[in-house]
C-alpha cells in the first residue's frame, strides 16, 4: 500500500541502526519529496496538477480509513493553512490518530525550530508503531 512505503523503507534497518540513522533516513526521504528537481517554489506546474489539487478523488473515505495509524504534524505559526481546516479531515479518520503541533514553525517547517520538532515527532511516531 502506498501509505505504508515510508515505514517500510525505514523498518528494514530499524533493528540494526540507531535513532540517528532513522532521522537521517527520514530527512533524506523528506528532502527527496520536497526538493525534486524543478519542482520547488517558483517552478511551473501544469494545469492538470492544479486541477487534481483542487478536485481530489478519494479512493477511501476518511471514515473508512483504518489501514495504518495517522500522524498530523501541523505548524503552530502556519498562516496559509489554519489548523481548523486540517482538523476537518483529520477528525473524520477512523484509524488511530496522533497530533503534534510544531511550536514556532511556519507553513513549511524546513528550518529550526520546526525541522527538529518534525524529525522528533516522525521518529517517535515510527518507533512507537514498528
Describe this protein with a few key phrases:
130 residues, two-stranded parallel sheet, disordered N terminus, Alpha/beta hydrolase, AB_hydrolase_fold
Q: How many distinct beta strands?
A: 2
Q: Average pLDDT, to the nearest integer? A: 77
Approximate shape = globular
How many separate domains? 1
Poorly predicted sequence stretches spanning 5 or more consecutive residues: 1-17
SS class: mainly alpha
Q: How many strands, which pairing sense, and closed or not: the largest β-sheet? A: 2 strands, parallel
Radius of gyration, CA atoms, in whole angstroms: 16 Å
Share of helix among residues? Answer: 40-55%
Gap from first CA to last CA: 16 Å
Beta-strand residue fraction: 5-15%
What is the count of helical runs?
A: 5
Q: H/E series, N to C? A: HHHEHEH
Lateral strand order in the biggest sheet = 1-2
InterPro entries: AB_hydrolase_fold (IPR029058)
Protein name: Alpha/beta hydrolase
Organism: Hungatella hominis
Describe the secondary-structure layout:
Layout (H helix, E strand, L loop, with lengths): L4 H10 L4 H16 L12 H8 L15 E6 L7 H8 L6 E6 L11 H16 L1
Parallel strand pairs: 1-2
Helix pairs in contact: 1-2, 2-5
Short account of what is shown:
This is Alpha/beta hydrolase. This protein has 130 residues and is mostly helical. 45% of the residues lie in helices and 9% in strands.
Amino acid at each position: 500500500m502506498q501509505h505504508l512505503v515510508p515505514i517500510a523503507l525505514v523498518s528494514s534497518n530499524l533493528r540494526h541502526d540507531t535513532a540517528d540513522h532513522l532521522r537521517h533516513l527520514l530527512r533524506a526521504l523528506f528532502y527527496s519529496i520536497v526538493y525534486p528537481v524543478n519542482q520547488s517554489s517558483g517552478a511551473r506546474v501544469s494545469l492538470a496538477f492544479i486541477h487534481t489539487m483542487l478536485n481530489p478523488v478519494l479512493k477511501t473515505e476518511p471514515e473508512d480509513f483504518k489501514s495504518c495509524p495517522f500522524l498530523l504534524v501541523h505548524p503552530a505559526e502556519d498562516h496559509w493553512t489554519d489548523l481548523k481546516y486540517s482538523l476537518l479531515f483529520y477528525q473524520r479518520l477512523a484509524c488511530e490518530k496522533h497530533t503534534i503541533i510544531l511550536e514556532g514553525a511556519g507553513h513549511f517547517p524546513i528550518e529550526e525550530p520546526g525541522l527538529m520538532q518534525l524529525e522528533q515527532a516522525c521518529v517517535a511516531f515510527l518507533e512507537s508503531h514498528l
